[in-house]
Amino acid sequence: MFRITLETTGFGGTGSAGTGPGGTRSDGTGPGGTRSGGTRSGGTRKSSWSWRSLFVGCGRWIVGVLTLGTGVVVGIMAGRHRLWEFYYNGTDERAFFILFVVAGLFPFSAIAYRIFQRDTQLAELQKEFELLGIVKHESSTSDSSGQEYVLLRYTQSYGLWNFAIQSMFAVYLTAIGLSLFFWPPQIDGNHLLDANTLQAMRYGFLGAYIYSLQLIYRRYTTLDLQPTVYMNCTLTMISGLAFNYVAFQAISKLSATPNANQVATGAEAGLVAIVAFSLGYFPYLALGWFNRLAHTAIGVRQRRSDALQLELIDGISQLHETRLRDEGIENIQNLAAAPIDQLIVNTRFSAQQVIEWIDQAILYLERSV
Question: How confident is the model at residue 80 (pLDDT cuts 50, 70, 90)?
Fold first, then answer.
C-alpha cells in the first residue's frame, strides 16, 4: 500500500513536523531522536518543573470542581422540594432509586473503564504504534521514550477530569428526562406543552437513553470509550427531547384539535410511541430529516461534499460512519486527509483498517477528479 510508505517515510531522517522517532524533531511531541524542545536529548529525559505546569494542574482541578459543584447545586435547587419531602417524609423512594440507578450507569461505566481497560488499551496502542513505526519496539531498545509517548497520547484523550465532567452532563440530562415520568409539568393552561407532546418527549427520551446505553456498551467492549462519548449521549438525549417537542407541537398546531390536552388512544397512541421513540433512538436520521425539510423550504442546493458520503467506502458501516463523524470526518475528502495516528488513538480502529479506508478514499478522489 502506497499509503504506508507515505506515512512512514518521515521516520528515518529529519522531520520538523513528523510523528515518529528518529532524526531531529523541532516540535517536541514525539519520542526518540534529538529534540529541540529542551526536555529530551539523545533518548535521555530531563525532568523539569515549572510554575506553569503547577498553574495548569490547579486550573484543571478548579474547573472540574466548579463544574461538578455547579451541577450538584443546580440539581439540588431545582428539585429541592422533592428532595425535602424524600428526606423527611420518605416520599418518592422508588422514583429516586430508579433515578440513581439509571443515571448512575454513566459515571459507573466511566470508572470501570478507567480501572479495568486502561492497561489493555495502552498495550494495544503500543502495538499499533510499533506497527506504523511511530515508536520503536520495546524489546529492541532500552529507551522508554516510546512508552512515554503512548502514555502521553492516551492521557490527552482519556483524562480523568474529562470523564468526570462529561459523564455528569449525561447524568443531568437523564434526571431531566426521568422527571417527565415522575414529576411531569402541569398541562392544564400550559400553551407551550400539551399532553401528546409530553408523551412523545417521554418516548423520545427512552429511545435516546437506549441508544446511549448501546453506544457505551459498544465503545466499552471495543476499547473506545472516550469521554466525548458521554457528551454524545447528552446531545442525543437533548435531541430526542427537542425533536419530539418541535415535531409534535407542529402536528398539534396544524391539526387544530379541539382538546389538545387529551392523550391519544388506540392506534394513534401506538403511532405516537413508534415515531417518538424512533426520533430519539436514531438521532442522525432525525437530524437528516430536519435538514432535508429546512433545505427544501429554504431552497438550498446540495453541495459537492454531500455526494462524497463515507458509505461509499467498502467496509464502513453505519456505526463506523457515526464514529468517524465524531472525529470531524464528514466525507471522503476528510477521510483522505485524516492523520493515521490520531485516528488510531481516538477511534481504536486497527492500523490496517484505517490505512485501507484512507487508501480507498484517496483512490476515489483521484477517480472523481
Answer: low
d(CA 282, CA 236): 9
Architecture of domain 305-368: Orthogonal Bundle (1.10)
Alpha-carbon span 233 to 166, nearest angstrom: 10
Give ranges for CATH 1.10.150.20 in the chain: 305-368
3 state DSSP class of 45: strand
* Residue 25 pLDDT class (50, 70, 90 cuts): very low
DSSP string, 106-157: HHHHHHHHHHHSHHHHHHHHHHHHHHHTSS--TTT-S--HHHHHHHHHHHHH
- Residue appearing with cell numbers 433545505: 295
With bands split at pLDDT 50, 70 and 90, how would you rate the model's confidence at 12?
very low
CA distance 104 to 266: 35
Angle at 236 between CA 210 and CA 231, to 5 degrees: 105
Record the cell numbers describing residue 278, joined without a space: 424512533
Render pLDDT for 142-186 as a digit per residue (tens, 0 to 9): 556 777 777 887 777 787 888 888 888 899 899 889 988 888 887
Q: How confident is the model at residue 30 (pLDDT cuts 50, 70, 90)?
A: very low
State yes or no: pLDDT of 234 exceeds 90. Answer: yes
Could you tell me the three cell numbers for 34? 534529538
| Under 8 Å between Cβ of 279 and 247 | yes
Comparing CA positions, the residue from 9, 17, 12, 57 lying closest to residue 36 is 17
C-alpha–C-alpha distance, residues 336 and 362, integer Å: 5
CA distance 273 to 285: 17
Cα separation, 190 vs 183, in Å, equals 16
Give residue for cell 515508536. Answer: 135
- Tell me how far apart the alpha carbons of residues 352 and 349 are, in angstroms, rounded to a whole number: 8
Task: Record the cell numbers describing residue 144, joined without a space.
Answer: 522508554
Contact 96, 182 (CB under 8 A): no
- Higher per-residue pLDDT: 179 or 41: 179
Contact 253, 191 (CB under 8 A): no
DSSP H/E element including 246: helix 228-255
